[in-house]
Structures are given as structure tokens and as C-alpha cells.
Design goal:
Elements: E1 15-24, E2 27-34, H1 44-54, H2 56-63, E3 74-78, E4 87-92, E5 97-98, H3 102-115, E6 122-129, E7 132-139, E8 145-148, E9 152-162, E10 168-175, E11 179-184, H4 197-212, E12 228-235, E13 246-252, E14 256-257, H5 263-275, E15 284-288, E16 294-305, E17 308-317, E18 319-329
Parallel strand pairs: 2-3, 4-6, 11-12, 13-15
Antiparallel strand pairs: 1-2, 1-18, 3-4, 4-5, 6-7, 7-8, 8-17, 9-10, 9-17, 10-11, 12-13, 13-14, 15-16, 16-17
């Protein structure tokens, strides 16, 4: 008997979820395409909170092993909040649901570009996120896509962090769609390389824990955004070439290491550089990640936001489709929610 597994039929009582996988500068994105109901809520912030209390099993199933891994990232598309937005999007990772994600926005925009019949000219794509409405853009005949981020601003500068067995580490706190602590890796003699990933993750976790009880973060408009999402280690010296301004390695959520330079992370960095007079309106720099792939980031506009000086960053990059999946959940599976190994 010839076996054909190309069209397997699973029992009807099993749960089925489909997804499309992409990567942006090496950072994965799993876009859920069916099998998850529309989350309830009047706005994207409410929908995010609904997912935190009702969709945790789904998140773990898709992000954790054996279907994902410790650094997996996902996106759930929703109905838009605003009339001029094409859709809403919620972002998920190994710890929960984030407020904004630049690499995911770039991937989603690239996906729209590949499905568009428009072959010339620049096109606008608006999407709603918990952090606000994002205006993305793409050209039908070009691979590079991008977005104009939410208002990004500096929160605190030169915050001392004392870690056990180490000298005092100084960091800056900025918001670029989420709050990050920015640490100069060169002051720690920290190599931002693939072979040093375990040390980077460990140190990022320590700094995040130390700051958790030290820094109080209050977003000007939405209290649910007021938390420290990650730690960005940067270096102006450890770059792959003269075209690079700096290198970023971000440790976010529960010790996830971003393969890209982090879209919201480079946005917050743009705000920091602007505050120090090192990046002006209309100027663009290239920031690379741990794989030496990266994003262009510039300041499209300066503004006031919540009584603070702020900037509107413009971020561009490239994303690629890697696969299409149909996931099944057998109700008799003893590890339905998966697991994480480091």
C-alpha cells in the first residue's frame, strides 16, 4: 500500500490554527491567519487585555515548543479600531502580549505588498496597535518597506543600576512604542555577538529585574503601556562596517533575544540621539542587529507629546515569507500549552 501523507485528515474535534511565518532582519513573526476568534474590546488596548486573560493557552501553544521556541514572536490580526485603518494587530511573545512591534509592522507591510496588484508608486497602509495607529508604507516595485512610528520620547537619562558583583551600570530610559532601558555595551566590555548570546540574555534579565523596582513608568495617555519591556544593549564600535551607526541587541519579555535591531528599540534610540543633539530632523542612520542585518531609522518630525519633547521616527527594513502552517491541537496531548527550553 502506498502511503500519502500530503492530505492528512485530522479528527473534527481537534483544534486547528493556520499561520504564515515571516522574518524581518532574522527576527521571526508568526501571523495567525485562522482559528482564533476576534478578541473582545472597544479599542486595541482593551483587546490586548482580553487576550492576556482569555487567549493565554493559544499564545503558549503557538509560541512555545514544540511548535515554536523561546524566542518566537507572533501577530494576531483583528478588526480595525479606526475607520481609516486596514486592520488591527496584537503582538505576542514568550511572556505575553506587547504594545507595539516594529519588526512585525515591517513584515505585515511586506506581506500586503506581495499581495498587492499595484506595481509602481508608494502606497500607504494604516494599522491599529495598542500603542496607537501606525502609518506604514510600501512601493510596489521595491522590497524595502517601512513605517512612521508613534511619538517617541526620552523618559530618564543616566539611571544608575547596581548589580551584584558588578560596578554600577548606567542606562537611559526611552519610549518608542514600548519602554526600553538603553545600556552602552562597551562600558561593560560586553561583546554583542552570536557566540555571546547567553551572557547578553543573562545580563539583560538582571538589569531589567533591577530596574523593575527602581523606575516608575507612566505613559502620558495609556496606563497599560507603563512598564519596562526590554533592555537594549548598543555599541557604536562593534559594527560590521562604516555604513553602520551602531549595533543593537535587545533582550525583551522573558529573556527573548531579538535577532533584528528592534523597530521600537531603534525608535527610542532616535529619541535619545535627538535629545543629545546627535540626530536631527531629516537625518537617517543605519542600526544593525546581532546578525548584522538592520534598519534605517530617521526623524520624520519633532513634536510635543504628553508635555515632553518627542520625535516621530521613520523606520525602514526588509522582511521575507518563510512558510505556511496548519497547526493541530490534539485534546489528549499532555503538553498542549507547550514548554520553553533555554
Amino acid at each position: 500500500m502506498k502511503l500519502d501523507f500530503s492530505r492528512c485528515q485530522m479528527p473534527q474535534h481537534w483544534t486547528q490554527v493556520t499561520a504564515l511565518d515571516m522574518h524581518t532582519a532574522g527576527e521571526p513573526l508568526r501571523i495567525i491567519t485562522s482559528g482564533v476568534p476576534e478578541p473582545k474590546g472597544n479599542n486595541m488596548a482593551d483587546k490586548r487585555l482580553y487576550c492576556l486573560t482569555h487567549y493565554e493557552d493559544m499564545r503558549k501553544m503557538l509560541m512555545f515548543e514544540p511548535r515554536g521556541h523561546a524566542d518566537m514572536y507572533g501577530a494576531l490580526l483583528t478588526e480595525p479600531q479606526r475607520a481609516d485603518s486596514a486592520f488591527g494587530v496584537l503582538f505576542m511573545h514568550n511572556e505575553g502580549y506587547s504594545t507595539m512591534c516594529g519588526h512585525a509592522v515591517i513584515a505585515l507591510t511586506e506581506l500586503v505588498r506581495t499581495q498587492s496588484s499595484e506595481t509602481v508608486g508608494e502606497h500607504q497602509l494604516k494599522m491599529d496597535t495598542p500603542a496607537g495607529q501606525i502609518c506604514a508604507f510600501y512601493s510596489g516595485d521595491k522590497k524595502q518597506v517601512g513605517f512612521y512610528n508613534v511619538a517617541s520620547f526620552v523618559c530618564q537619562l543616566n539611571v544608575p543600576v547596581i548589580l551584584a558583583g558588578m560596578r554600577t551600570v548606567y542606562c537611559d530610559i526611552a519610549f518608542g512604542g514600548a519602554y526600553y532601558a538603553y545600556v552602552d555595551a562597551d562600558q561593560l566590555d560586553l561583546a554583542l555577538s552570536l557566540r555571546n548570546s547567553e551572557e547578553i540574555i543573562s545580563l539583560g534579565r538582571k538589569i531589567k529585574r533591577a530596574l523593575a523596582g527602581k523606575v516608575q513608568l507612566e505613559h502620558p495617555e495609556d496606563m497599560s503601556l507603563g512598564f519596562l519591556y526590554g533592555v537594549v544593549f548598543y555599541s557604536n564600535l562593534q559594527v560590521s562596517g562604516s555604513h553602520c551607526h551602531s549595533r543593537h541587541v535587545c533582550i525583551f519579555a522573558d529573556g527573548s533575544l531579538d535577532r533584528s535591531p528592534t523597530g521600537t528599540g531603534v525608535s527610542g534610540r532616535a529619541a535619545l540621539l535627538a535629545a543629545r543633539g546627535a540626530l536631527g530632523r531629516g537625518e537617517t542612520i543605519y542600526i544593525e542587529g546581532i546578525l548584522a542585518s538592520g534598519f534605517d531609522v530617521g526623524i520624520d518630525a519633532v513634536c510635543q507629546y504628553g508635555g515632553r519633547d518627542a520625535v516621530r521616527p521613520k523606520v525602514t527594513g526588509e522582511a521575507y515569507v518563510t512558510g505556511e502552517h496548519t497547526f493541530w491541537l490534539d485534546p489528549d496531548d499532555p503538553i498542549q500549552q507547550g514548554f520553553i527550553l533555554r
